[in-house]
C-alpha cells in the first residue's frame, strides 16, 4: 500500500526538477540571445569586415614667394592580413607587379606572420599602375593603402627642410605619447619636417570595408582623414639656391635674416645634399648610409649645430659694452705696434695706421684696440675686481644671444659657448685677471658661436639694440599668426645711440678704408665686419657679418667658411653676392661669382685625409 506522504514528496521533487530544467533552458537561451549572440554576431562580422586606416596627405611647404619647397605625390602600400591570406600565392607574379625581390617578400611575409591578425606592409611606394593590377588580381587578405610621398622641386635645403623616415621601436617608445603612430607609419626627421610634425602630419581616418568586395562599393567611412596643414616658409628659395651654389665645395654655413621680423631668408649648410635622396623609397637606406659616412658630414646642419670662434666679428660687441659702461668714447685712441703687449701677454695684429680711434679700429679690425677696451671693461673702478667686471661683461654678452639657445623653430640648435666666472675660478684656482682671458676680446679663446647667433647679432646691430627670435615658418594654414614668441622683441641693455658709432665703423670697413671693401655695393650702404678665427687644424676660418642698407635694413647676414684663410677671402664675397641678389634681384659681378665658385680651400687635414682613395 502506497504511503500518501511519500507520494506527496515525489510529486514535489518532480515539479522542482521540471522547474529547474525549464529555468536552465530558459537562462541558456537568454544568454545565447543576449550575450553570446553579440559575440557570435561580432565574430561573424569580423569574418566579413576589415577596418582600414586612411592616411591624410601631409601638409605642403611653400617659400615666402609662394614657390613649392616640399610637394606631395601619391603612392600605395600593399598590406596583408596573414590569417585571411591564402597559404600560397603566385610569388613570381607578385614580384613582377611590385618590383620587390623574392628575398624582400619572404622577409615581409615573415614579419607579417609575427602578428597574423593585424595588417602589415608587404611592399611600399607602389605606382597607380601597380595598384590597379593588384586590385584586378584581388588576392584574399591583401589590399592597398594610399600614401603621400615627399618631393623637393628645387632640390635645396636638405638640412633645413628635413626628411621622412619610418617609425621604429625607439620612436614608438619615446615619441608616441598620444599613441598616434603604429609600425609602418612615417614621421618627420630633422628640419621643418620634424619641428612641425604635428601640424604637417594631419589626422588618420578609418574605413569599414567588406573583405570580399573588391570594388569597395560597400565601404563605410567611420572617420574622415584630415589633411596636414600647409605652411609658408620664411626662406627665399632662389636666394637659398644661390647661397648653396656659392658654398659648393666649401665647409661652413650661411644665415640671412630679415632684421625687422627675425624671419630667416637663407640657411645654407655646406656640404649639403639633395633632399630627394632621402625620400621614403627603396634607395633611401643606401643614400642615408652614404651621406652618414661622408667625412664632411652633409647631414650635419652647421648653421645651428656647429660652434666656432666668432673671431674679430666679436670686437663689435666689446665696443658696444665699453661704450655702455662708460670706459670707451668714440674718440678714444690706442696705439698698435703690430699688436698688444702687457704683463707677459702678447697679442699680434696686422700692420695699419696707429693710433686708431673706435671707427678706424672697427674698419681695420685692430686687435690691440679691443684688447684695451676689454681690459678697461673688466678693470672698471666701479667694480671690486676684474672678476666682478667679468660677470657684468658676461651678462651683456648673454643679452645679445650668445652662449644660449635663441629658441628658433629648428631642431638641433646649440648654445655656443660663453664661460661663466665659475669656470675660470676653477681652472685658475681663483687666481686670474683680465689678461688671463684677454683672447675673448677678439672672439678667440673659450668663446664660440653658431652662424645663426652671428646673423642674429648682425640683425641686432641693424635694429640698434633689439632682435626677434629667428624663425623659419611665416604662416600656418588655419592660423591667424605665428607664435607670439617670434613676434616679441628682445632688447639688449645697450643704449640705441651707441649702436650708431659701431655702425659708422662697419660702414667705413666696407665703403672707405676697411678690411671688407669687396662687399661694397654702390647706393646700398652696406655695413660689415670681417673675422679671421684661428684654427689649429689648418688654415684659419673666414667669417663675415653684415647688413644692408645702413638705414631701414632689409637683410642681415653671417657667413662662416671653415679653413677660408681670411675673412675677406671667402666669407666677404659670398655675403656680398647674396646681399646684392636679394636687394637688387640681379648680379652685376659675374666675375666674382666665378671667383667664389672656383675658390680652392684645403680640407685635407680636417676632413679628407681619411677618405678612401
Architecture overview:
The protein has helices spanning 4-48, 91-98, 102-113, 128-137, 158-161, 169-174, 191-195, 197-201, 237-247, 284-292, 302-305, 315-325, 358-364, 367-378, 386-399, 421-427, 451-462, 496-511, 571-584, 590-597, and strands spanning 49-54, 61-62, 68-80, 120-126, 142-151, 163-166, 186-189, 205-210, 220-223, 231-233, 252-258, 263-270, 339-342, 345-348, 466-468, 473-476, 489-491, 527-533, 541-548, 555-561. The protein has 613 residues and is of the alpha+beta class. It has 2 domains: 52-87 and 94-233, Alpha-Beta Complex (Penicillin-binding protein 2a (Domain 2)), CATH 3.90.1310; 237-610, DD-peptidase/beta-lactamase superfamily (Beta-lactamase, 3-Layer(aba) Sandwich), CATH 3.40.710.10. Strands 2, 3, 4, 5, 10 and 16 form a 6-stranded mixed β-sheet that branches.
Task: List the keywords.
613 residues; alpha+beta; Penicillin-binding protein 2a (Domain 2); Beta-lactamase; six-stranded mixed sheet; 20 helices; 20 strands; 36% helix
CATH architecture of the largest domain: 3-Layer(aba) Sandwich
Strand content: 15-25%
- What number of structural domains do the residues give? 2
Q: What name does CATH use for the topology of the largest domain?
A: Beta-lactamase
Q: How much helicity do the residues have?
A: 25-40%
- What structural class do the secondary elements suggest? alpha+beta
Amino acid at each position: 500500500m502506497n504511503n500518501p506522504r511519500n507520494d506527496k514528496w515525489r510529486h514535489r521533487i518532480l515539479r522542482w526538477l521540471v522547474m529547474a530544467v525549464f529555468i536552465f533552458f530558459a537562462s541558456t537561451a537568454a544568454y545565447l540571445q543576449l550575450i553570446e549572440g553579440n559575440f557570435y554576431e561580432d565574430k561573424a562580422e569580423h569574418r566579413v569586415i576589415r577596418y582600414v586606416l586612411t592616411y591624410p596627405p601631409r601638409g605642403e611647404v611653400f617659400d615666402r614667394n609662394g614657390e613649392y619647397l616640399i610637394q606631395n605625390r601619391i603612392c600605395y602600400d600593399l598590406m596583408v592580413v596573414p590569417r585571411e591570406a591564402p597559404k600560397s600565392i603566385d610569388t613570381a607574379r607578385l614580384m613582377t607587379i611590385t618590383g620587390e625581390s623574392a628575398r624582400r617578400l619572404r622577409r615581409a611575409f615573415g614579419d607579417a606572420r609575427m602578428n597574423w591578425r593585424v595588417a602589415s606592409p608587404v611592399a611600399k611606394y607602389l605606382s597607380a599602375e601597380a595598384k590597379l593590377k593588384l586590385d584586378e588580381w584581388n588576392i584574399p587578405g591583401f589590399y592597398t593603402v594610399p600614401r603621400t610621398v615627399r618631393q623637393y622641386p628645387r632640390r635645396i635645403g636638405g638640412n633645413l627642410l628635413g626628411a621622412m623616415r619610418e617609425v621604429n621601436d625607439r620612436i614608438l617608445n619615446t615619441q608616441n605619447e598620444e599613441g598616434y603612430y603604429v609600425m609602418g607609419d612615417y614621421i618627420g626627421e630633422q628640419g621643418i619636417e620634424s619641428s612641425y610634425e604635428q601640424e604637417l602630419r594631419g589626422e588618420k581616418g578609418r574605413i569599414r570595408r567588406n573583405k570580399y568586395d573588391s570594388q569597395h562599393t560597400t565601404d563605410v567611412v567611420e572617420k574622415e582623414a584630415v589633411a596636414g596643414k600647409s605652411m609658408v616658409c620664411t626662406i627665399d628659395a632662389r636666394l637659398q639656391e644661390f647661397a648653396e651654389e656659392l658654398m659648393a665645395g666649401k665647409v661652413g654655413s650661411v644665415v640671412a635674416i630679415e632684421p625687422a621680423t627675425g624671419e630667416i631668408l637663407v640657411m645654407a649648410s655646406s656640404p649639403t645634399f639633395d633632399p630627394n635622396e632621402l625620400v621614403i623609397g627603396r634607395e633611401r637606406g643606401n643614400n642615408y648610409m652614404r651621406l652618414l659616412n661622408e667625412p664632411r658630414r652633409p647631414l650635419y646642419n652647421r648653421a645651428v649645430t656647429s660652434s666656432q670662434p666668432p673671431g674679430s666679428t666679436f670686437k663689435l660687441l666689446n665696443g658696444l659694452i665699453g661704450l655702455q659702461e662708460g670706459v670707451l668714447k668714440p674718440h678714444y685712441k690706442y696705439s698698435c705696434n703690430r699688436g698688444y703687449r702687457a704683463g707677459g701677454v702678447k697679442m699680434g695684429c696686422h700692420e695699419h695706421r696707429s693710433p686708431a680711434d673706435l671707427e678706424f679700429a672697427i674698419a681695420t679690425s685692430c686687435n690691440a684696440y679691443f684688447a684695451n677696451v676689454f681690459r678697461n671693461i673688466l678693470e672698471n673702478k666701479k667694480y671690486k675686481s676684474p672678476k666682478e667686471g667679468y660677470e657684468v661683461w658676461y651678462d651683456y654678452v648673454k643679452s645679445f644671444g650668445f652662449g644660449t639657445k635663441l629658441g628658433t623653430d629648428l631642431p638641433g640648435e646649440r648654445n655656443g659657448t660663453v664661460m661663466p666666472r665659475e669656470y675660470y675660478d676653477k681652472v685658475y684656482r681663483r687666481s686670474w685677471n683680465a689678461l688671463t682671458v684677454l683672447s675673448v676680446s677678439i672672439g678667440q679663446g673659450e668663446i664660440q658661436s653658431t652662424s645663426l647667433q652671428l646673423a642674429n647679432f648682425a640683425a641686432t646691430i641693424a635694429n640698434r639694440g633689439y632682435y626677434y627670435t629667428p624663425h623659419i615658418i611665416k604662416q600656418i594654414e588655419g592660423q591667424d599668426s605665428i607664435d607670439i614668441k617670434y613676434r616679441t622683441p628682445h632688447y639688449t641693455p645697450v643704449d640705441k645711440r651707441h649702436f650708431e658709432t659701431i655702425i659708422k665703423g662697419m660702414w667705413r670697413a666696407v665703403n672707405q678704408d676697411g678690411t671688407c671693401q669687396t662687399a661694397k655695393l654702390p647706393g646700398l650702404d652696406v655695413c660689415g665686419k670681417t673675422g679671421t678665427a684661428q684654427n689649429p687644424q689648418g688654415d684659419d676660418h673666414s667669417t663675415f657679418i653684415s647688413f644692408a642698407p645702413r638705414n631701414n635694413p632689409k637683410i642681415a647676414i653671417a657667413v662662416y667658411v671653415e679653413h677660408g684663410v681670411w675673412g675677406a677671402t671667402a666669407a666677404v664675397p659670398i655675403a656680398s653676392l647674396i646681399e646684392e641678389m636679394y636687394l637688387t634681384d640681379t648680379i652685376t659681378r659675374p666675375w666674382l661669382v666665378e671667383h667664389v665658385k672656383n675658390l680652392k680651400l684645403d680640407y685635407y687635414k680636417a676632413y679628407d685625409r681619411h677618405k678612401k682613395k
